[in-house]
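Input chain follows. Return structure tokens only.
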Amino acid sequence: MEHRLSVVVSKEGDIYVARGVEIELASQGNSVEEALDNLKDAFGLWLKHAEPEELAPISGKRSPLVTQVVAA
């Protein structure tokens, strides 16, 4: 079964960090693509070993709204 998962990527120093939203995992890489590939691998391992009750909250879930606000 495929799962569509949301990811936030930020640059921290010289590396890119990719963080999962629905599944709280993170990975890093020297480029955005490398960070995403590494996180995709981590997601795959997590999903392979997850218990059914851990999968329930993400099955069929819609992507969260991610936006920005300006605060002063």
